[in-house]
Amino acid sequence: MTRKEYEGYLTAHLKPKRYKHCLGVEQCAVELARLWGADAEKASLAGLLHDCAKWMKGETLIEYLRTHGYPLDAWDMSSQQTLHAPAGAYLARETLGVQDEEVLHAIACHAVPGENMGLLDIIISLSDFIEPYRKEIPGLDEIRSLARTDLREAYHRYLGQMMGHLLQEDILVHPRTLLSYNQYFLDKLAERPSG
To answer: HSE on the CB side for 18, CA within 13 Å?
Structure first.
């Protein structure tokens, strides 16, 4: 598909505010990709399409994932607002013709980060939080600034902020997000000289 066709799909299925958010994530992802050595074209595509399935809700979303063999578990069912991410990866492949596995993976895990996130995965997940149209929330400017000097630290702080918000609101924290948060500490330990 062409850029115009992607945009046509998004504007037909998403509310204007959500479409603007997708453009903001794309813009931020391209900037971070260029800064940190990721593929800017892949970052552009994943950023633009990361919320392509956000229009799906409730049973439509659940049935779509079941039809595609997605292994829905109790964690998924209790945090359905994040299921647009794996649904988006299926939709991007089947409806929008995206075949790049790295792009599809970044779309699939942007809402619930997991263990061993790749560079593009981190960029898309973080860009979803720090994109320029995001409403002001505590700590956002600091994380935006940090993303340009220390990507891993910015990503770690973003995960900490997200989990803190979920805990404060008494909302479930998905175990994959906790694994991603803890991966930072494991990586730091692995970097220490032995002996």
So the answer is: 17
pTM assigned to the model? 0.92
Q: What number of other Cβ atoms are within 10 A of residue 83's Cβ?
A: 22
| Residue entry with tokens 């991966």 | 183
For the chain, the average pLDDT equals 92
d(CA 108, CA 24): 18
DSSP string, 136-162: P-TTHHHHHHHTTT-HHHHHHHHHHHH
Write out pLDDT tens, residues 112-130.
Answer: 888 889 999 999 999 999 9
Domain containing residue 49: 3-191
Alpha carbons 84 and 108: distance in angstroms, whole number: 8
CATH number at residue 81: 1.10.3210.10
**118, 4, 98: which is closest to 50 by C-alpha?**
98
- Residues 34 and 36: their CA atoms lie apart, in Å, by 6
Span 36-73, pLDDT tens digits = 999 999 999 999 999 999 999 989 999 999 999 998 88
